[in-house]
Amino acid sequence: TKFSQASSFHSRPKHLLSSPPKKIWGPTFGYKCLESLKMEPLADCSLLPGEERIIDKDIIYICPFSGALKGKVFITNYRLYFKSADADPAVTLDVPLGAIGRVEKMGGASSRGENSYGLDITCKDMRNLRFALKQEGHSRRDIFDILFKYAFPLSHGLLLFAYLSQEKFEENGWSVYKPMEEFRRQGLPNDKWRVTFINANYELCDTYPTILVVPFKATEEDLRKVCTFRSRGRIPVLSWIHRENQAVICRCSQPLVGMSGKRNKDDERYLDLIREANGTAKLTIYDARPSVNAVANKATGGGYEGDDAYQNAELVFLDIHNIHVMRESLKKLKDIVYPNVEESHWLSSLESTHWLEHIKLVISGAIQVADKISGGNSVVVHCSDGWDRTAQLTSLAMLMLDSHYRTLRGFQVLLEKEWIGFGHKFANRIGHGDKNHADQDRSPIFVQFIDCVWQMTKQFPTAFEFNERLLVTILDHLFSCRFGTFLYNCERARDTNELRSKTVSLWSLVNSDLSFYQNPFYTPESNRVLYPVASMRHLELWVTYYIRWNPRIRQQQQSPVEQRYIELLALRDEYLKKLEELQLSDSSPNSSHLSNSSTPNAASPTQHITHLHTPF
Amino acid sequence: MIETFGIKLICSKNSCLSPVVCLVVSVSCRLCLVVSCRLCLSPVCLLSSVCLLLSVCLLSSVCLLSSVSVPSTGEVVFCSASTVLKYTQDDLSQRGVFGVLLCTNFRVSFVSDEAPTEEMGQLFKNKLYGENDIPLSCVDNIYGGSEDKRKLITGGLVKNKYPSKMIIHCKDLRVFQFSLSFSKEEDAKKIFQGIVHHCLEPKSLRCLFAFSYCENTSYPEAQRKKQTVMFDSVEDWTQDMKRTKGNCRVVSENSNFELSPKLPQYFIVPKNVSDEDLTKYQGKGLPMWCWSHHSGCALFKTASIPLVQEDNVPQTYMEKMLTAVAHNHLYSVKTEDLSDTLPTVQDILLSYNRFKQFFLIDNTTEFWMSDMKWFSSLDNCGWLDIIRQCLQKAVEVVESLEKENTNVLIMEEGGSDLCCVVSSLVQLMLDPYYRTLLGFQSLVQKEWVAGGHAFLDRSNHLHLKDKVESQSPVFLLFLECVWQLQQQHGPAFQFSETYLTVLSDSIHVPVFTTFLFNNDGHRDSLLRAESPHTQRSPLNCPTVWDWSVQFDCKAQDLFTNPLYTEKPKQDTSVRKSYRPRHLRQLSLPSSAFKTPPKKGFFKDEADNLKKILGVKRLSRWMLSPSSDSPQTSSSVREFYEAWQTKPLDYHGLLLPCLDGPSIRVWMQRYLRWIHDVQILGGGPVAMLSKVSEILGEVQELQRQLDRHGCTLTSNHKGARPRAKTAAAVIAARSSVRLSSSFPFVTSRNWSFKPAIPTSLLQSLMVTGMAGNLADREDDGGPESLV
């Protein structure tokens, strides 16, 4: 299962029953606990360091695919684990509590019908779980209370599991991203762009990172002035620079134009400095929103860069909808894929969710940004606050433009930089540990971005060093709360909560087992711009993520193509070795026909291969 | 009669009034015109003026023709026009290339004035026609355009009129747009009317290019014979029955089409079918053997007899035939009337016609406009659903054979359309032999060619008005289903996606006998009649399986799938001990029916059992109940799920997943010509070419090791590739970037400009569904703003 991948805890004691139950819960639960001790221990569930068992209970899992299954559920401070007792093969569930969005009671003590009394759990990862219990004796009260408490620890004054985890890894994921190093890799600072520490104490902008790159000519005073004219102080700062043509991607929030159409000379001058830096005639401003929304934003004090005010800039709207539209869209998608895939008119149903349409808009927006940059024009990207759609656009464009971000570590840097560093509000969008499932701030913006990345890897199967497994793992731990990586809204909050010293980074897990996430087909090609095709003809539903709980969708550990490739690679190595051995033993003159041609290369397999190529 | 420039060329000798179309062009630089009559083999005396006119007309164009593409022998140019502008399909800028547009008895051809570019495209060049050639029978529709209007041309035009722009939609989904406004009026008129005439007007079968081609090409027949099983001899049928351990009767009484010209030359029927049964109802109702399951039960197909209420005779006959089928194995038979449960050939045509429009792109704006509604349009045209239904029906039949071990008789009105689709699919799923390249070709020969699928009527190459109704892409539908299977279980197939695409294109190249006739009898009589060498041997024409007619060896390498591995050969001595009879591996446990009851019981109870089963099934057939009931579909689902839980064996039973997301569009075939959706440097080929590359290396290493006399360990034999692969081809161009349209489109149009979808906002339908949400702010209201 997904959560037993990390090699680090394989060596841990095999199961949880070793600790005396009394230590975990009070005398009220004593009876049930004794009962549970009679059950067979679940040998295949190993606990994470720091994970503690809270309750286990006989229960019926109403599996949407195989019907009602009797079994036992275990709840720890990290996960809900269920194993069926009689089904063959056993059905298991392993759900991190972080993935739970909502826990509800189903039916009442007087409900009629079989299995009508129990719990209904809505998960953030595209599934729902239903458990039925015995109707007599308030049998669900304890499990409901515990689930509710531990699935939403922040609502109950408890710590997120990431702060309880004792996991240790060989690698320290927190050292993956060092902002200065990344800027240096891009060739920054240079004579046009400088690094500023003005935000070292989050005084300029509390949702920005501490290190920013701004036009060389802009003074700290300029920055402070611009700050007043941008929503939440999110001024335009550099995200990426093209090594050859020096065109840059800058990101920011909307200007505070308002109903009266306010102007700000400093902001205008500042944008012109960005344009000037590589000497192009026009700066392109991509406003990710539909123009109607941009106009509507004036009513709340926001707006967009008007033509008269920003004469050297052209404004393009990218028509990407807001977080609420995206949330509803994914909700609709879930309706048609879980538990069963809509049978009649599948394609029309898929279309009516608009999910892929939104994906298309995001990707084509990013293509436009990347295309402008390739053409040598600098761009500024913003939406309303510059932490949702803006992050999607800049990071996707950077993925298209810069092959470094397509490597395993480069991709981690991209996420750390554009999403985590620049304050995508993970805490609000995901609602880590929070019981308020109907919170309007929640939205699958990051899921949508990862979907876009998946679409790109699908279209360019050799261009990315990482595989689909990495993307699924990222999404799993986006919710799981096992790692600190996606917790909190911004760097400032992370500092306050000492995240980096108290939790483990997801990249620690990933980088300790890199080969698991590696794409064997990866062929590095630096300087190649990848333009995916943003047509519905090529966009696909990410079945292996969204429909992965459905057993009818064959989940292959490895794609057949991958499998075959790895087989052949192994075969090649074996033959090469054999050939080498033969050549060594054949050094006698009578078999010189082959040795003559290949002896000079025999020592190095790589050269040898090149040599073998020539017959074609 | 063929009309060229309004001059009728008629053989004058011995009142043999056959059209003169045979013109041999020698490949050397010198041109020699040999005009001869096809039927009487005498040089034709043409009036000198006609001769002169003809040569003048032809000379220039023939020169051009030979300089660009290899001239096909037997090809005659009918008309041509110079300074025709061919638009580059992918933009609206009205840019294009000037050149000569020709119409020959084989193709419509555009010869660019610009020097031909020698590029990588050459590697996958079709030897018969180039990228600017359209075989006449590949022309689907012709539109006349003037300014912004487009009008479908249906033939029978008013003389002296022609549109300034001609748009040709091809059956292989290419779209050509020519402007005639720069040509001489006379030329433009002639070429337009010539093309319309030769592409759209009714013609006789003899006018198809195959006949003039074959007369002038000697084709080495021996080469093909040893490869694909053609099912044109008793031996072929006997062998296939033996291979599947069938126990039926090979009928050779029709070898001269004495029983019926509509029946195959050779075929197999259940043992209990008597001689007199063979001739009744012109072969209708006669159960034709398709394939035997290792359990002994078999699949049969038949053309159903229309049941007339008063007349009891066909019913009695049908009962007899059913009993004969039941006798084949354990007195069980299931009948399935496909006419009741699957779409008709007209439905198939209608659906396909709607479907193909999504890919016949005249301009990019239109394309992007349609993009937002892509999924629902696709859904509404129903094509994917028809594919799903065919696959589902095949799975049902597989279930009967594999799980219940019952004989199955599938039937439909003609017995040679959906019966062919379903029976071939069943065999592909059950029998790994048919998933090899030669096996697949043999399957097509068996079920479709010998099986009497009316290729000619279904394609209506001749544009006969009375055959418009019978036109239907049934064979293409079959290839679509195969593609779905291949897409889901790649490593199980020896042939590649490219192979299927090329095969689907070849249907419209009127050179191969495979696709030109309605049945064996039809083929035989025509080839005999057309033979130039007295009446003895029939005309020797290539079949589509003679791939070297179209592609050279290197290009043919792309037909094999680098993922395919042969079944690992296990130690036969070990195998034999526990599996003496069935060499095919089963993925499902056999049902109780599989082991036959004791002999004694068998004999005694036979009649009883027969009665029960026979009558039961028969009544079911009589009532022809819809088998599409929820019961069936849930049973199929269970069958699939049971199969799915077993480990996947690529050399065993294969079942397709029929869920919505699993049935997909055959991207390579349908999107290959659309520039805007080409993934440059990407697509599945990016991965497959790497597999091929490494496969090539492994093969080379093997050769070296073999030279050393090293025996390779047996456990690797399975992974050890035997087939030639595309490695060489792709390795040779590893410096070139491939695109998702590989190998059909060359990288010549490589542009670094990405396609940016136009018209995004207008079509996004969000406002209607969630207007209030769309208008809302992401985070909080005004209070949060400074």
TrEMBL record, chain A:
SUPFAM superfamilies: (Phosphotyrosine protein) phosphatases II, PH domain-like. Substrate binds at N322, I323, C383, S384, D385, G386, W387, D388, R389. It is a peripheral membrane protein. GO terms for molecular function: phosphatidylinositol-3,5-bisphosphate 3-phosphatase activity; phosphatidylinositol-3-phosphate phosphatase activity; phosphoprotein phosphatase activity. Residues 599-609 have a biased composition (Polar residues). One of its GO terms (biological process) is mitochondrion distribution. Residues 586-616 are annotated as: Disordered. Transmembrane segments: none annotated. Keywords: Cell membrane, Cell projection, Cytoplasm, Endosome, Hydrolase, Lipid metabolism, Membrane, Protein phosphatase. It is an enzyme of class 3 (hydrolase). It catalyses: 1,2-dioctanoyl-sn-glycero-3-phospho-(1-D-myo-inositol-3-phosphate) + H2O = 1,2-dioctanoyl-sn-glycero-3-phospho-(1D-myo-inositol) + phosphate; 1,2-dioctanoyl-sn-glycero-3-phospho-(1D-myo-inositol-3,5-bisphosphate) + H2O = 1,2-dioctanoyl-sn-glycero-3-phospho-(1D-myo-inositol-5-phosphate) + phosphate; 1,2-dihexadecanoyl-sn-glycero-3-phospho-(1D-myo-inositol-3,5-bisphosphate) + H2O = 1,2-dihexadecanoyl-sn-glycero-3-phospho-(1D-myo-inositol-5-phosphate) + phosphate; a 1,2-diacyl-sn-glycero-3-phospho-(1D-myo-inositol-3,5-bisphosphate) + H2O = a 1,2-diacyl-sn-glycero-3-phospho-(1D-myo-inositol-5-phosphate) + phosphate. Residues 353-399 form the Tyrosine specific protein phosphatases domain. It is found in: Cell membrane; Cell projection, Filopodium; Cell projection, Ruffle; Cytoplasm, Myofibril, Sarcomere. GO terms for cellular component: filopodium; late endosome; plasma membrane; ruffle; sarcomere. Residues 173-546 form the Myotubularin phosphatase domain. The active site is at C383 (phosphocysteine intermediate). Its EC number is 3.1.3.95. Residues 586-598 have a biased composition (Low complexity). PANTHER family: MYOTUBULARIN, MYOTUBULARIN-RELATED. Belongs to the protein-tyrosine phosphatase family. Non-receptor class myotubularin subfamily. This is Myotubularin.
Automatic annotation (TrEMBL), chain B:
Pfam families: 3-PAP, Myotub-related. The keyword Cytoplasm applies. GO terms for cellular component: membrane; sarcomere; sarcoplasmic reticulum. Residues 231-670 form the Myotubularin phosphatase domain. InterPro entries: MTMR12-like_C (IPR022587), Myotubularin (IPR030564), Myotubularin-like_Pase_dom (IPR010569), PH-like_dom_sf (IPR011993), Prot-tyrosine_phosphatase-like (IPR029021). Its main location: cytoplasm. GO terms for biological process: locomotory behavior; phosphatidylinositol dephosphorylation; skeletal muscle fiber development. Keywords: Cytoplasm, Sarcoplasmic reticulum. PROSITE patterns: PPASE_MYOTUBULARIN (PS51339). It is found in: Cytoplasm, Myofibril, Sarcomere; Sarcoplasmic reticulum. Belongs to the protein-tyrosine phosphatase family. Non-receptor class myotubularin subfamily. This is Myotubularin-related protein 12.
